[in-house]
Design brief:
This protein is α/β, with parallel strands linked by helices and 285 residues long. The protein is 39% helix and 26% strand.
């Protein structure tokens, strides 16, 4: 049974005349008669009785009319609610694990092109149960692999040590030289912490992570106090009280990746805007 059959049935029942109903529906009388006939065949009973030049609902038709009318009303209300919702402000949920410096430019363009969109920022990891995010920005030590993610940016990572640290006398370092060193990382799944862990293990050792921070400024202050070493991108190379070292073996990169869950029109627009923002971006911290 199709919605069009019910719509035709209700119009014929309202006007009690096939020709008049066909005119209002914008279809031919033979097509309308056929639609009603097919509906009666599917239901296994007649719905109308002839009444002179017109037709009237019989007992079967009256029973079906009550249910059909309610169903169509419910359906039309649902359509209206969806249409109203689309006209309201939509909400885009972003999980930002890396790349915070992208946000100001992203927000500016979104306000210009999608003024009714609301944006909510969360910090949900890749493995979080029942995620709420539509888009996620995270860091990885490898290129994106899925069809639901794209590369935003590739940047080199540097080691930051206190100026009082023995390695501060050098300009570069092999990664294995920090085996056993206390490491301070910003560590939510999908952040630089995961990238650091991957590269340290590639260099042959497990990182000695002593603090998992969610605050970049505090991390830099702790490094300056010589409480540990940390990693960040080129943009963050200048930090008071610290020395920035190039990592030579292996050269460490992080890949900033945009991932999405629901490919709606709103999400796809946001993906395009983020790609536009990253088209001329500098390395991000």
């Amino acid at each position: 049974m199709e919605y069009n059959q019910i719509r035709c049935f209700l119009k014929v029942a309202e006007l009690e005349h096939v020709s008049h109903a066909a005119a209002e529906l914008g279809i031919s009388q033979p097509n309308l008669s056929k639609t009603i006939r097919v509906l009666e065949q599917e239901l296994g009973c007649k719905l109308f009785d002839r009444d002179g030049r017109g037709i009237r609902l019989n007992d079967n038709g009256k029973i079906f009319w009550r249910h059909a009318k309610n169903s169509v009303q419910e359906l039309e209300e649902g359509v209206q609610k969806l249409q109203n919702r689309s006209r309201e402000q939509s909400e885009l949920v972003l999980s930002i694990l890396s790349g915070y410096l992208l946000l100001p430019q992203f927000f500016r363009i979104v306000q210009e092109r999608m003024p009714r969109m609301k944006i909510r920022i969360v910090r949900e990891g890749l493995g979080q149960a029942s995620p709420s995010w539509d888009l996620m920005i995270y860091s990885s030590s490898s290129m994106p692999k899925g069809e639901d993610e794209i590369l935003l940016h590739k940047e080199e990572l540097y080691l930051h040590v206190s100026k009082e640290h023995p390695l501060a006398q050098y300009d570069s370092v092999n990664l294995k030289e920090i085996a056993g060193e206390p490491i301070i990382v910003i560590n939510t799944a999908g952040t630089i912490g995961d990238v650091v862990d991957d590269y340290c293990r590639q260099a042959g050792f497990a990182p000695n992570i002593i603090m998992n921070m969610d605050n970049g400024q505090l991390t830099r202050e702790l490094v300056a106090m010589n409480l540990g070493v940390s990693f960040s991108s080129e943009l963050a190379r200048s930090m008071p009280g610290t020395k920035t070292l190039k990592i030579c073996q292996p050269t460490c990169f992080r890949y900033l990746i945009l991932k999405w869950r629901n490919p709606s029109g709103m999400v796809q627009q946001a993906v395009e805007i983020m790609g536009e923002v990253c088209g001329g971006m500098r390395p991000v911290g």
